[in-house]
Design a protein that fits this description.
The protein is α+β, with helices and mostly antiparallel strands. The chain is built from 13 helices and 38 strands.
Length: 749
């Protein structure tokens, strides 16, 4: 890992063992992009890589220097472009000045190269634990007319094939400036022979993989909902048409942010692909007074020439080890039971204790009390914001209930939705102006609730104290942090007319400040984020909470798509995944208990059902499921994940986890619809050691790694225990559609 500055040719070369990134300062004193991709040898001069016209730039292009008609920013690949000074493509930033001008000209002033990586003020970001893990380049650009600076920051890691980027704007002038566009990165690639991949969906159908061929013009995904949203994740990838899971080139781009974002690719008239990623410029503005700074969120760029799995491995390792933080980053997650689908709002202490008792007997380690424990909350019309215990339901309070659960050998967890408020609440009576709303306009409810104005410090501080008081009142080991609506009628009573377009970003900053304080004050609590399921599954939230409820859709077959798509970027141990009751509450689908667990174990595992309604056979099955998970959760948490068969392409899905030392393997194999007389199955595995002999835990067979990867793991025709002429209870319960199989392999000693 190194960053070298070629002084004579004015070039920066960032590289580690696998990737290179090269920047050049040109005559305009602006940084241009020369190369990003597989590592190349360093040389003292990369000037030959800067492509320029040998005679006048064609067709209506303008020239920044009248004496040089061969140079136009319209045909230059740039690091952080502006609009209006010969580049007609969409820019990375724009600044509105008091005289109405939007023209800027930021030129190179200085640079700094240092070991390590700086924190971002008020924002989540990847980090290092010692300075030897990374190197950082900061390029300072200055616009003398408006007396302002921008700092372009690049960090390259030693261990991870990733480069992180962010930008800082500094107003050193006497007059205010307004940022109307402030993206985190731009990357110009020299051609457009790529397919764009993104994760799309909606509530209960999050992060499905979508692929489209790049074409001339703009292709983009975004959120304007006040959250990263289930509709588009703040991630895109560009892959070559022949790239698959294990071969070929791919670039990944992910924003460490939980609010409105834009991910865009513009293919221009010369086939250059401009990638832009950052805060959504739509409905955004930020006023910078004298001496003020604006910091953009971090963008994480990954390059792999080992296909999509290669890209995913980089993101998984980086996020698991240097994005997630705290005690739970490196700890196995407890098996939990959440009472929501068992009781909804209809519970009392006796009923909860009864469910927890059964859970403990079956091996569950953590009981979680969901919605309905506070204020007069008996439905979703009331009490959000009233974070004090409902003594009618819980006469001994949270502390009393937690103690009873603890006495049974279980940890205790609690549900909150602190960002929201019902108009039917004491908090609203006391502070009706604490909503996000526009005066004299209707305020559209969603799920009967409204959004508290977290852009205001006093609101954040008040809610923080209420939540902290509850967390400090009892032995609470886990918090489920929910968020069940997006922003409409955006406005804040805390800011003037000139700052109303700052509210969505200020809201996210307020949320981050609260999460930073809570996770610091309660470092032993495992926090899990939720936003109607997966509506805010992004790196920003993972910085504070090491797992996210992947989707409100807990149907195992739907989860194949959701978890498979999510794994493109996010480690599987960040995905909350539960076994729920059947018929499934979202789809009414009936799936075997085995298959429900066989999908959920590839995540942060738990249950969301009433164990007391299950028969003795089912309880024994659950005991074995929990035992299996406990035996393998360290492997699932830390191992390398490989996608083998895609649910988006066939009737079958397969994936696997391999330990870092390649001695342990867990494979999940799933079939959606049954096939008659289907014959034999062969599954080629990945990531094994060719020389290791692997023993099948569930049979007396062994195989060498090279055989399993090249010939494949061969299943018999009875892979899914087809009924045939047998009629045992166990076999009957496993027949029909939606079958699955878990295979365990260990290195033979």
């Amino acid at each position: 890992m190194e960053i070298i500055f070629n002084k004579e040719s004015r070039e920066f070369h960032l590289f580690n063992n696998n990737i290179s990134y090269i920047i050049k300062l040109i005559r305009t004193e602006q940084p241009t992009q020369l190369y990003f991709g597989k590592k190349i040898k360093h040389r003292d001069d990369f000037s030959h890589m800067f492509q320029r016209w040998t005679e006048r730039v064609g067709g209506l292009s303008a020239n920044p220097f009248g004496d040089d008609e061969t140079l136009s920013l319209d045909v230059v690949m740039q690091e952080y472009p502006s609009y209006g000074t010969t580049d007609f493509r969409q820019p990375a930033f724009q600044i509105l000045q008091e005289d109405g001008s939007r023209i800027t000209n930021f030129k190179y002033k200085s640079h700094k190269i240092f070991d390590g990586k700086n924190k971002l003020e008020g924002l989540p970001a990847t980090y290092v634990e010692n300075n030897a893990e990374a190197k950082t380049l900061e390029i300072v650009l200055e616009d003398e007319v408006i007396n302002s600076e921008m700092v372009l920051s690049y960090t390259i890691f030693n261990k991870y094939d990733a480069i992180t980027r962010n930008v800082k704007f500094i107003n050193n002038g006497e007059t205010s400036l307004s940022l109307t566009r402030a993206l985190s990165m731009c990357l110009d690639l020299p051609d457009y022979d790529y397919e764009m991949i993104h994760l799309s969906g909606t509530w209960t159908r999050e992060r499905h993989i979508k692929t489209r061929k790049l074409e001339h013009g703009v292709q983009e995904i975004y959120s304007a909902r006040g959250a990263s949203s289930p509709h588009h994740n703040p991630f895109i990838a560009l892959k070559r048409p022949n790239t698959d899971e294990f071969h070929g080139e791919v670039y990944g781009f992910n924003l460490v942010y939980s609010g409105n974002f834009l991910a865009q690719v513009e293919v221009d008239h010369y086939d250059v692909s401009r990638v832009l990623l950052g805060i959504n410029p739509f409905d955004f503005s930020w006023k910078l007074e004298k001496g003020e700074i604006f910091q953009t969120p971090e963008a994480v760029m990954v390059f792999s020439d080992n296909g999509l799995n290669g890209m995913s491995k980089v993101y998984h390792d980086l996020y698991r080890e240097r994005l997630c933080r705290g005690k739970w980053r490196d700890a196995d997650r407890p098996v939990l039971l959440n009472n929501w689908e068992a009781t909804y709002f209809d519970f009392n202490e006796e009923k909860i204790v009864d469910i927890a008792k059964t859970a403990g007997e079956l091996g569950v380690e953590l009981f979680v009390l969901d919605d309905g424990w506070f204020g007069d909350r008996n439905d979703d019309y009331r009490a959000l914001g009233d974070w004090f215990v409902n003594k009618d339901k819980l006469p001994n309070g949270i502390n009393g209930l937690a103690q009873k659960v603890n006495d049974m050998g279980l940890q205790f967890g609690l549900w909150f939705e602190p960002e929201m408020i019902n108009k039917n609440s004491r908090l609203y009576e006391e502070h009706p102006d604490w909503l996000i709303e526009v005066k004299k306009r209707s305020n559209s409810p969603s799920r009967n609730q409204h959004i508290l104005d977290f852009s205001r410090v006093e609101v954040v501080d008040y809610i923080y104290k209420m939540v902290a008081d509850i967390l400090g009142s009892a032995n609470i080991s886990y918090v489920k942090w929910d968020m069940n609506r997006n922003m409409t009628e955006i406005g804040s009573a805390g800011f003037g007319a000139d700052r109303q377009m700052e509210v969505p970003h200020r809201y996210i900053l307020g949320l981050y400040s609260m999460l930073e304080k809570l996770t610091s004050e309660f470092p032993n609590i495992l926090f899990e984020s939720c936003a109607s399921g997966g509506g805010r599954f992004d790196p920003g939230m993972l910085y504070y909470m090491p797992q996210t409820w992947a989707s409100d859709n807990s149907d195992a077959i739907e989860r194949l798509n959701i978890q498979y798509g999510t794994s493109l970027v996010y480690p599987i141990m960040t995905m909350g995944a539960h076994v729920s009751a059947v018929p499934n509450h979202q789809l009414r689908r009936v799936t075997s208990l085995d298959t429900r667990a066989n999908v959920a174990i590839f995540g942060a595992f738990g249950y969301e059902l009433d164990l007391n309604t299950m028969d003795s056979y089912e309880k024994e099955v659950i005991k074995e499921q929990i035992k299996f998970y406990k035996e393998n959760r360290s492997l699932i948490r830390t191992g390398d994940f490989y996608r083998l068969l895609s649910p988006f392409e066939s009737n079958e899905t397969a994936w696997m986890v391999v330990s870092k030392d390649k001695t342990e393997v867990v494979i999940g194999y799933y079939q959606v619809l049954s096939k008659s007389n289907h014959g034999f199955k062969t599954l080629k595995l990945q990531g094994l050691d060719e020389e290791i002999e692997y023993f099948s835990v569930d049979s007396d067979k062994s195989f060498f790694g090279d055989e399993l990867m090249n010939c494949g793991y061969k299943f018999g025709h009875d892979i899914f225990n087809e009924l045939g002429h047998k009629n045992t209870e166990e076999e009957i319960r496993k027949t029909g559609d939606f079958k699955s199989k878990i295979i365990r392999l260990v290195a033979k000693k």
